[in-house]
Structure prediction request, 274 residues.
Amino acid sequence: MPDMSTLLPMLLFLLVIGGVAGVLAGLLGVGGGIVLVPAFFYAFTVLGYGSDQLMQVCLATSLATIIVTSLRSVMAHNRKGAVEWDILKTWAPGIALGAIIGVFVAAGLRSVVLQAIFGGLGLVIGAYLGLGKSGWRLGEGMPDGVRRAVMSPILGFLSVLMGIGGGSFGVPLMTLYGRPIHHAVATAAGFGVLIAVPSVLGFLFLPIAADIRPPYTIGAVNIPAFAVVVAMTLITAPWGVKLAHAMDPKPLKRVFAVFLTLVALNMLRKALLG
Prediction:
């Protein structure tokens, strides 16, 4: 068990990260997980819990926090009438199915492989945030039929492999198909619930040896990290929602894109060296 001189700085670190993740979830619609996963990985590594299953703990704990963050965000956005419930209802089965498949796949991969996946997909998301244009369109209505049946599980699957909610993939998808950005951010928060609930239920039963997992971990979900981050996101997610409706987040999104690209490159570097 790490001593208090190590745990206290990590507690402060997680408090800050939780606050930032909550604001980003509401403001940019990218989901707090894109920040939480590398933050958890850093924190647990410093605490001496690096192992071939460390990334599973980071993904599962991040997704557990997203249940609370996304619910809070959906409720706040819904009060502003921005959630498109018809899209949520029709995309829900496929997203949940993809999330469940993602848990089974993630459970069988080594930590270094999941790091590489996070880094690679993080670069894609960063590039879109930094270079994407609001006028880009793939269509004027959300996909349905066969296209929805294919795309919705992919969205859930990739999100679980990164430990993120629905925003990082859902917001670009919805805006590319003609949905207003505020509606996309609000509805993608609902995607986060659909992704996180079934995946966390699966991760709670993932066996990880007690000697290689952080203390107070159930399955792959670390309870102290979950509690600290949730406490902060409950406070800060509504701030992000208010900012999203009061300002143009485009300049901040460009800065975040650079930050995310650097984080993704660092993950890839660690994967290659690991």
